[in-house]
DNA sequence: ATATTTACTGACTATTAGTCAGTTGTTGTG
DNA sequence: CACAACAACTGACTAATAGTCAGTAAATAT
């Protein structure tokens, strides 16, 4: 009996339709100015139905966050897949992260939003769990690629891979965050192109990880 | 005639009293669960009065953000003041940043909150301006200390000071952010003490900036 | 004594997240 | 087919709360 399965597919589809509508509305007006009625109208559903699929406005936004994270992760695997050596994969991931923030600013915004407001969540712990699961998955991926680099000898470090992964991830997130901030709010006092800052950062980091003997010349 | 002056002092005092009350309430219950009526009650004032001093709940929270930033900046100058050499001052600032995040987690939380939600601000541009002013001030301070280090020869770098300041600030912010996140939401998969991660980071960075010939042995 | 300015009040309004009793349509059963 | 059981959906309603504003009180100036 395929009825059950079809029902589940349709339910999944509805969930996606709602997320599509929510993206449309949230990305257009910003989260705080968007109402659940706006989303309901865009989805051509009643507000009540939204709450059958998402328990709160914030959880709906978390759904968008998850889409963003999935997209980012996909860009990471694609980028890493284009290289053989560990160090090149790590570089490619760094670049992909930055590209993601430029190509999907609204998803990036959603990620930053939760980064800054999970600390205020007193609510639903299931939601928080879901949020952290995404983060861990990416950390694990970075860790694996670092391990590859250490194994193939293109990355040299005194640190445990696990720690290094956290440090690198934290660093690059912070650098991209500040670049987004500058780009969003330009300041005539700043003499450089914010985009160049990222190249500087990558160059800066390169020195710390690369084993010059093993690296391909480019 | 000192009446005008006294009035201004009293007004400043009221503003501070309101901020005290707001801290008490927001830090206790978290921003989203706190109401303006709660704050009014804690301040022993009517809600209307709050709005004579702050235009919105968010602006009130921004007032707390500013107090936090001032505290942080103060810790930076104190920390830097305890050293002679540029590189030591920079290290001291890095440590002070981390100490700040641990000693004043609620102020730190406020800073993170705005970091993640300015991107959503469609509102009051005066408020955004105020927010960015704080950030610039700290960046300027870091830049000055870096310049000192370059001048006294304890810091060596190929980059422009301005860019280096942004990179370092972004990096360290990101690392502290991820440490806070891990600390707040411990994970048995993580084998290390999140606090050690910061030491690792500082060690990691040290290698990039220090001129070994010039450094004091410790 | 009286006018003017300043600080404050709290009842009120508007908005909106979230609920729930009821409707509609689909699937399974005798 | 008739009818029961179930699932998906609806939208009017409630509760909570940010923000307002006409009115009061108290200090200051004339």
- Average residue-wise pLDDT of chain A: 91
Low-confidence stretches of chain A: none
* Percent of residues in helices of chain A: over 70%
Number of helices of chain A: 9
Provide an overview of this structure.
Two copies of one chain form a homodimer. Chain A is mostly helical. Chain A has nine helices and no strands. The interface between A and B is large, with 54 and 55 residues. Chain A binds a DNA duplex (30 and 30 nucleotides) through helix 1 and helix 3.
Brief descriptors of the model:
homodimer; 218 residues; DNA-binding; 76% helix
SSE arrangement:
The structure is a homodimer of 218-residue chains.
Chain A: H1 3-29, H2 36-43, H3 47-53, H4 57-81, H5 86-103, H6 105-117, H7 125-151, H8 161-184, H9 194-209
The first copy, chain A, binds a DNA duplex (30 and 30 nucleotides) through residues 3, 7, 10-11, 14, 35-37, 45-49, 51-52, 55-57.
